[in-house]
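Human: For the file, kindly provide a plain-text protein record giving the amino acid sequence and the backbone structure tokens, at your earliest convenience.
Assistant:
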Amino acid sequence: MGNSIKLIFLSLLLTPCAWADDTVPGATLSSLLQWLEQDSAELAAMRHEAAGAAQRAEAAGALPDPSLRIEWAGLNRSGVPFDPSRTDGTKYTVLQPLPGWGKRDAQKQAAQAGAVLAEAQQRAVSAELRARVTLVFTQYYQTYRALALNAELGSFTDSAAKLMQSRYETGAATQQELVRAQLEQAAQQSERLQLQTDLAQAQARINALLNRSASAPLQIPQALSVLPSAAKLNEADLEQRLRAANPQLAGQVAQTDLAQRNVELVQRNLSPDFILGIAPVQRGNGIRSVDAMLEFTLPLQRLAHHAHQNEAGEMLAASQSRQQAVETRLLGELREHLSALQGARSQQELTHQRILPLAELAFKGALAGNQSGQVNFATLLDARRQLQKARLDELNAEVAQQIHLAEIERLIGEQL
């Protein structure tokens, strides 16, 4: 069976019916990310929470609902229960609570800070899910390409085993060479089985992230995303973008702002709250007089108020320290992944430009030498193994760049 036929058969085997359906995701990373945005249950939950927090901010700072109090005087004389015209008097009191000066604004600002925090948390979850989808798609692509290389290796090991069997039967090869060829064939088959398992696991992880059935079909991965240019990977620019757009850092900034608003709100609690009442009084069939009342709290529990102020101050200090720690950690992660990406890019270039051509040249020479009887079979197998390793090293370096790029985009909160 030729290499091209094997690859076609492999594609059909791994993705039944998916290759012909454009509505099935999996061919590219963008198709998975689009599906994620539309169908992720986790993202939908975070959107609802952010919308709920925005609604809370809209309602914050409004006056409390007023209350109505009705008082009857002289019910024992009326003979008709609750008949206002036959009692000594009926008072209708409308009570409106009025928060102290500045408290409504402080409550609204705290609620708005909470809404900003919820939005930042939504963006953080979105960035995290996008990064996870990118990583799993990269593993999916890596495993599929490794299977393709394994299929090509399988053609060689099958041919080598048959050739050694034929030579052994004619006395042109030793039993050791025959066993060595069969061992290589078995190792290749064992690797294929493991890769098929890894591919199925990657498909299941992708479907889980996309809120699809674990057995739902996926298209075969066509290509990885194009890597950004070196100019877009400038460390200073990336650090600036991280500080401006990282969802986790933005969430911590919002948390600090919320703590600051709570400090202000606690300080406002040292001023009294009010209740204003208006009470028309009915005697007989008409309103005979109108009473008014003013009630206010006396914030005399100074120890309790000072304790609340100290608590709010400590929480603000803790949030500020945590914000600084988060920024330092994120910048460290950015530098780590940026260095790793650049290292993987250099490794891929070295493998592609130097190691892989030399490995191919060494294998072709060993193959020609073996066919002419000048190179033994063990040398040929070593040369083929080195070629396979070089191809996998190039693939792994390419995949490593994508992984570190996904982490960098997660950290800066946007695509490069």
